């Protein structure tokens, strides 16, 4: 049985993700090694903090090139900042290049509500995705963010949430998935999403 590689590039909350995967009986390896990412059946890209810092760390280690090369070969899931890094560009602090695996940019949420957005919000699912198989409509998941993705194509958006305006909550393109929320902190709904992701490579 293969493993899911959880990318260690210095900006992720790695333990909560691996704990959730282990609870589901899914083998994971925390790694920053290109070879282990290449051998993995699937990859999770976590992340907390600022887009430019994270993007620079990926480029500095060469892991950006590895992730781009592995996209399309195996399922990849970006979580929170990890999802934002999937986009073409980020505008947090300064304009910065992302991985370019999902078209669009990342910018501050334009809302009258308090930022950061912290707490539980319901999902409105769209563009049927295997990532959400068996997930009830309007399931609640846990968010912590001030920035969000603005997708170039609505066909890449698989879930939205409301925080004043409609906000992109999840994306999918060519086997690359992103969740702006934290599935590993989202109770049964989050576990179902991780379970579904674990099944994509099997």
Helix and strand arrangement:
Elements: E1 4-7, H1 14-23, E2 28-31, H2 34-39, E3 42-45, H3 51-61, H4 63-70, E4 76-79, H5 81-84, E5 87-90, E6 96-97, E7 102-108, E8 117-122, E9 124-125, E10 140-145, E11 147-151, E12 157-162, E13 166-173, E14 176-179, H6 187-199
Parallel strand pairs: 1-2, 1-3, 3-4, 4-14, 5-7
Antiparallel strand pairs: 5-6, 7-11, 8-10, 9-12, 12-13, 13-14
In short:
By secondary structure, this protein is an alpha/beta fold. It has helices at residues 14-23, 34-39, 51-61, 63-70, 81-84, 187-199, and strands at 4-7, 28-31, 42-45, 76-79, 87-90, 96-97, 102-108, 117-122, 124-125, 140-145, 147-151, 157-162, 166-173, 176-179. It has a single domain (4-199), classed as Class I glutamine amidotransferase (GATase) domain (Rossmann fold).
Give structural notes.
It is a single chain. With 202 residues, this protein is of the alpha/beta class. It has a single domain (4-199), classed as Rossmann fold, CATH 3.40.50.880. The chain is 26% helix and 33% strand. It has six helices and 14 strands. The chain has helices at residues 14-23, 34-39, 51-61, 63-70, 81-84, 187-199; strands spanning 4-7, 28-31, 42-45, 76-79, 87-90, 96-97, 102-108, 117-122, 124-125, 140-145, 147-151, 157-162, 166-173, 176-179. Strands 2-1-3-4-14-13-12-9 form an eight-stranded mixed beta sheet. It has a four-stranded mixed beta sheet with strand order 6-5-7-11, with helices on one face. Strands 8-10 form a two-stranded antiparallel sheet. The longest helix is centred in the C-terminal third of the chain and has 13 residues, at 187-199. It starts with a strand and ends with a helix.
């Amino acid at each position: 049985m293969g493993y899911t590689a959880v990318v260690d590039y210095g900006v992720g909350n790695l333990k909560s993700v691996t704990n959730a995967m282990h609870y589901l009986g899914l083998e994971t390896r925390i790694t920053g090694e290109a070879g282990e990412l290449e051998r993995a059946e699937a990859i999770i890209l976590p992340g907390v903090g600022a887009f430019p810092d994270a993007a620079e760390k990926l480029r500095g280690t060469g892991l950006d090139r590895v992730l781009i090369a592995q996209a399309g070969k195996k399922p990849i899931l970006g979580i929170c900042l990890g999802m934002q890094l999937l986009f073409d560009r980020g505008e947090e602090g300064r304009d910065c290049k992302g991985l370019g695996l999902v078209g669009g940019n990342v910018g501050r949420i334009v809302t009258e509500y308090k930022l950061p957005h912290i707490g539980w919000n319901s999902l409105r699912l769209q563009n049927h995705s295997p990532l959400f198989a068996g997930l009830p409509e309007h399931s609640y998941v846990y968010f912590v963010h001030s920035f969000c993705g603005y997708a170039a194509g609505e066909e890449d958006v698989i879930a939205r949430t409301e925080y004043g305006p409609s906000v992109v909550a999840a994306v999918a393109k060519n086997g690359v998935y992103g969740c702006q929320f934290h599935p590993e902190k989202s109770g049964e709904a989050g576990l179902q999403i991780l379970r579904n992701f674990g099944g994509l490579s099997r």
